[in-house]
Amino acid sequence: MPNYSYVAKDANGKNVRGSLEAEDEKDFLDKIHQKGLYCTDYNETAAKAKKSVKKFKTKDLAFNCRQLSAMLTSGLTLVKALDILAREQPSESAKAVWQDIYENVQKGESFSAALEMHSGTFPQFLISMVNAGETSGSLDIIMQRMSDHYAKENKMNNTVKSAMMYPMILLIMSVVIVIGMFTFIMPTFVEMFDDPDTMPTLTKGMLAVSDFLTQRWYILIGIVVVLFFVIRYLLKVPSVRLKFDKLLIKGPGFGKLIVTIYTARFARTLSSLYSSGIPMVECLQRASAILGNSYIDEKFSKVIDEVKQGAALSSAIQRTEIFDSMFCSIIYVGEESGSLDDILTKSSDYYEEESDSAVQRLVSMLEPVMIIVLGVMVGLIVASVLPALYSSFDNIQ
Fold first, then answer.
1. Which of 35, 157, 228, 281 makes the best surface tag, with the fewest CB within 10 Å?
2. 38 three-state secondary structure
């Protein structure tokens, strides 16, 4: 895709330099217009080489954005702030990334263009927000918003990881116990039967499983590895991924909980983008993409088309049948009152609390399922060895 470097003026008449990728000149001019800029000069340049990257975690992004916000608010220039930030990085890889950004900005590149040169290191959401901050002249405020955004994102990720810790331990212990019973306990009961042909069908089945695990365990490992790569490949097929993502939000029980988590992320992202002066169409594109759900992306392509044609955002989102009616009503109130950014901010706080509860409820659904599965497996093993025990008691008598 061609890369265009440009010189433009913002709404205040301030010169803005930068570069962006576009399919052709028309697409480039459309993107410039969406940014609220008036292009005075541009030319097509060779595509810039993509650099080997270090992908920053949400915790790192929150810290770096907070540091930049503090330095910019205190009156430091962006170049000086980036120089200090690069020298303060704890790792050499992070220091190299920020040092390169500092050097590019010092050469005249815009901050957003310098970030975009490091493909994969920084999320597109952050790059869009930085570009909006440069255009509006409020980069320090944008950096503070991004710090809050990624701090909350990091908190949600940690909540999910913490909540999943016990179910994961329980799953691992269940697998170890079942394998241990099949490989060490079941074989000891074979000798209790005088005639293997008299074994009950259940016992024969359990012993067959035991023999398979002790003698042909490598086949099981091979099946697991093959299944892993097959599933991984299938999830990359668009049609399969679409059905899987739809199941995530439409599935009984857990679907509603996952939608609550998605609503919190969508509301927070849309609030951050819209309050920064980014056009609504681009806000919707970025906010839906950050969820990483192809089914939602497909639905929102229709929402974007409707909004372009002048439809109300609340009614367009309502027709997707993804988010609950209360969220759509909140957006409607924001549209009618002219305070959509404030309404979205408040609703994101509410849904973040709800998402924490949703994560806990989701985990609480997994725990009994795993306990039941473990109980069934142990019950089958016990039922298969009881005839052997009864037979040994008869022989003693």
1. 228
2. strand
